[in-house]
Amino acid sequence: MQLQQRGHDANAAPCVGIIANPVSARDIRRVVANASNLQIADRVNIVLRALTALASMGVPRVLIMPDKGGIRAMLLRSLKREHNLHHAFPEVEFLDMEPTSTVEDTFLAARMMRAAGVKTIVVLGGDGTHRAVVRECTDIPIAGLSTGTNNAFPAMGESTITAMAVGLYATGKLSAEQALAPNKLLEISINAGERHDIALVDAVISNDRYIGARALWKTENLAAVYLAFANPQAIGLSAIGGLLHPLGRHDAGGLAVHLSDDPATRRLVLRAPIAPGMLREVGIARWEPMPAGQPFAVALQAGVVALDGEREMAFDAGDRVRITLRENAFPTVDVARCMQTAAREGLFRLSSSTP
């Protein structure tokens, strides 16, 4: 079950990729907030349900990212057992790559899946895992399954239904116009693109001067939060914007929130759930809309940019940091719309013989 990297063939049978992060939801936020995390067996069961649904929708082949966390080994055992019980699955192939147990695995797997011509990538993880896939594949639709700590981007859903929607699109039963939705993202640029990255949900400016423990969970050092969208039901730093000025993921523009603990400059204090079970009070100085395509200059002289909750980019005095909202930046499978459209068009109805 190995795959050599190959070019895209428009006439090839539809193929779907699966990237399952074996260590999502295991950062310090889970520890300090007493939150649960998904075990390997649970992640494998999510993948198995997705594979069953993809087979039922007519997807013949699935590529999966290998890992050292135990998903591949347990999945192979489970597939062998299920095949012996005559359960149907697509042909499963693991990418021919050596896992490193770092985010580089996700970057490489996404690039290899793109080169192999997958129609869609199903992602199991939190905001950071989804960001890593999109960074490498802005032109490949993704379908997210939430298994991380803060899950503002991937929706909570059952993998069976998500995979059914993916299968409808991958096999051509639904068109891109029927199945896909456009999404916003934030582009972060330091010194006119000398360094750059993206965020799917939030780019947070902190006066920390080190990367260290990557997860950002203390609010007293925060200077600003830039948001592609702001859901009031979200967990994480995007909740600051969501509870202040809700903004839908398909609404125009973004939101910039400037923070301050100084009574002389702050306008109000907001209580927000920045991690599961963890509410913190945050001083708000002001907030403003972010029109698409307009760069916003970061005022802090030196610090760290956290992307979707994790410290990623340090900057020093003299560095010029700009954050720009981009609309229609990448597609996702709109599961609800896929299922509604397919039901209306009778795509799940099986023909019956007349006696």
Structural class: alpha/beta
The proportion of strand residues reads: 25-35%
Query: Count the strands?
Result: 17
Task: Name the shape in a single word.
Answer: elongated
- Terminal Cα separation, in Å? 44 Å
Poorly predicted regions are 1-8, 25-33
Mean pLDDT across every amino acid position: 89
Reported for the largest beta sheet, the result is: 7 strands, antiparallel
Major sheet: arrangement of strands: 12-13-11-10-9-15-16
Q: Give me the number of helical elements.
A: 9
Q: Would you list the SSEs in sequence order as H and E? A: EEHHEHEHEHEHHEEEEHEEEEEEEH
Provide a short characterization of the protein structure.
By secondary structure, the protein is α/β, with parallel strands linked by helices. The protein has helices at about 30, 40-55, 70-85, 105-115, 125-135, 160-170, 175-180, 240-245, 335-345, and strands at about 1-5, 15-20, 60-65, 90-95, 120-125, 140-145, 180-190, 195-200, 200-205, 220-225, 255-260, 270-275, 280-290, 295, 305, 310-315, 320-335. It has a seven-stranded antiparallel sheet with strand order 12-13-11-10-9-15-16. A six-stranded parallel sheet has the order 1-4-3-2-5-6, sandwiched between helices.
Which terms summarize this structure?
single chain; 355 residues; alpha/beta; 9 helices; 17 strands; 30% strand; disordered N terminus
